[in-house]
Amino acid sequence: MNLVGVDNYSKNESTEVILIGHAIDSAPVSVLQGPPFLFPQELMDAFYSESVSIVAHNSTFERYMLKHVLHIDIPTSRFLDTLPQARHLSMPGKLEKVCEILQLPEGKLEGGKLKDLFCSPAHLGGELTLFGISEPRYNNWDSHPTEWQQFIEYCKRDVEVLRKLYNIFLQHPLPECEREGWLLDQKINDFGMPVDVELIQKMDKIAERAKTIARKRIIEISGVENPNSRPQLLTWLKTQGYPYNSLEKSMVAESLNDINMSEEAAEVLRCRRESSKTSDSKLEALKLMVSPDGRVRDLFGYLGAPRTGRWNSHGPQFANQPRPVKKVEKNFDRAVELILKEDFEAIVGEFGSVMDVIAGCIRACYKAPEGMEFVIADYAAIEPRILGWLTNCTKINDIFRNGEDPYISFASILYGVPYDEVTKEMRQNAKPGFLGCGYMLSGGEEYLNKDGDLVRSGVWGYAQSMGIDIPKDLAHKAVKVFRNEYKEVCDFWYNSDDAIKQVIKTKKKLKFDKLVFDISGQTLRMLLPSGRYLHYIRPKIQQEEFKGKIRDQITFEGIDGKTKAWVRQSTHPGRVTENAVSGIARDALLEGMKLADKNSIPVCGHVHDEVVALAAKNESEKVLDKLLGCMRKSVPWAKDLILDANGFCSTRYRKG
Known about the structure:
single chain; alpha+beta; Alpha-Beta Plaits; four-stranded antiparallel sheet; 47% helix
């Protein structure tokens, strides 16, 4: 199911329901076995009674299975889902993990082996026999009676744990604004994103050919046995003047400018970059998840980012698509045309790297149905706007009141030139400084990473991660200029840090301008203007060493952004500011989408600060104006926040 998605899984003719665990109110849990199922009248009445709510964890699964397998169609509005409730509290989505964090011993559900035993084929079938082609065979209560009884107990215990979790979450209910948001999220996921199956198939074919050629060339030049082996390749590269100890993307990019490295090594690295691009994994996910009607569903995970509440992405990662290189971006339609023609030689001749074309055109796989267009709109510089509004920074707010570009404005100060004389390069170099400095980044230094390679930190490293190579002294100057120019932002960092530490120590609620901090049980909460909380579980103030000095540091338990493990981690004033700004930006996006939905604009997707809708071609410009109006409208909880949005219409999904 994880590969094909819940929509395809539930609609597949081979999918069956074999156990149904349920309980009504506080009654004992019952487990029905089938198929066929003999539903008790009390359960059937509950299914069809509009006054009865159904509690489930990740209710999309239950809703789709009930609808497509058992033919019981229950509206989303009747489900109470504990998954978004857990995520609202900054917990993981998996039920077992939530129970572990809440220290519920009942939550140690060990059903993985039982699921494999009874839900995966014991024999795949497909063999020619005297009676025709054999069908898949599954284990059941006859073949494994002891394990089947254990499976029933597992199903029963699953419902008991869910009920206990639901009762705990009654003490921390999902705010009504988030309940509305979740219902809209489910509507968007059900609607799905339309895709171009032909383009996906041809891209996949071209990508495989390009990778095969690149791997063969690596072997020809280097002589390594396995071109996918990092150790083998790294050993050979070292003999050719490769200066680093790893093959991380940034290291490889830097090495290609190194005059001391051989031409053979440079070609091998270019071939490796071609053969190791992961863009085709997105194509594979798209191929598997597209439904018979040409749409991909269940792409977005509500409240998926634990620190901010932004959505995360499922399957083909709609929100995490590679940005096209400039050549592909400028000739996007031509690149798509050549892919559809399967003209491999022309792609190489016009663009050089085939995989750069594939990666840059993944977005084009999302295509509006015949006679329709995507209507694509995104907020303009929403995080800088919110940073200025949240910190009451007059100079940042004035930039937007005057209709100016924040990055040109900052470049004007950074380079000491008039606003109208700022060049494209100056703006580009100033952008990472403005964005990073708002969250307390330092200028940056070089340090040895885990592989022993020199890497950059601070604004200097942040710029490099954006593909912008700025001088170190300019990064340090950006920090100095920002902190001198926008003092209110700096004041916000330190005052918010003091406020949080005071709340942790005193356990008393504290209003801090537009935010409110308090302690609820074992959780530090930050109340955003929208009425939504950000949560920091089991907070502490601990002494940690930083640059040779001992200082008080705020720590809490949460999901590690890299390892996804549940660990105690530290935060700092800049990161808290970023959490608040990103959280408010997410809430503004949700307000815009809610308003669009109320205005009958069919939203089918969204990415960070962008909304994607569908409209008939002859109506798309009108719908775009309507959508921009929804996004520019002041949000009810921040009427003085200046919002703006821009957009366009396109048959294929693309960046504007």
